[in-house]
Each structure stands twice: as C-alpha cells, then as structure tokens.
Known about the structure:
Layout lengths: L1 E3 H13 L3 H12 L3 E3 L3 H16 L6 H12 L4 E3 L2 H4 L7 E3 L1
Amino acid sequence: MAISIITFGEVYEGVYYGRSPRDNERGFRAFLRRARVLPLHRGTMRRFARVRGQLRTAGQLIGDTDLLIAATALHHDLILVTHNRREFARVPGLRIYQA
C-alpha cells in the first residue's frame, strides 16, 4: 500500500483543518505505519509530462495535483483507489478502484 507525496499533503490539509486535528493526525500516522509515501522524481515527472500532453491534445486535461497522483500510480504500476473516477478515468492506462 502506498500514497503519493501529493496525497500526503492533501490529507494533511484535512488533518489540520478538520474538526479534530489531533485525532485526525493520530489516525493518519497509524495509516502511514502501513503505507509507503512515494516521492516525485524524474521518472514520475516524465510520466506526468507525457500524460499531461496527451490529455491537453485530447482536450481532456485534469488538474495538476490529480495528474501528479495518477503519474505516480502509473510510474509504480499501482492501482489508484479513489472516489474521483470522473477525473482519473481520463488518464490512459491508469487502473482505478473506486472506493
């Protein structure tokens, strides 16, 4: 199990601005004991650039944060778990599990 560093940041926004930041952070830290946090590196960014160009050409561009998350999953050959199938389904070759 793994998450992108981008997802890490998005979750921490929810931790800090949710109803119970202390409890939220405790729960997220427990999750992180079982999950890897995948960094952005050159390979991921090359994948990001290729997919972004494909989506732009097709007129199907999605937000850069979602695209970075998708590029991370593609680069590491992972299945993306999401509630946001509408956006991520545009990404060619991305395997999605809708939670």
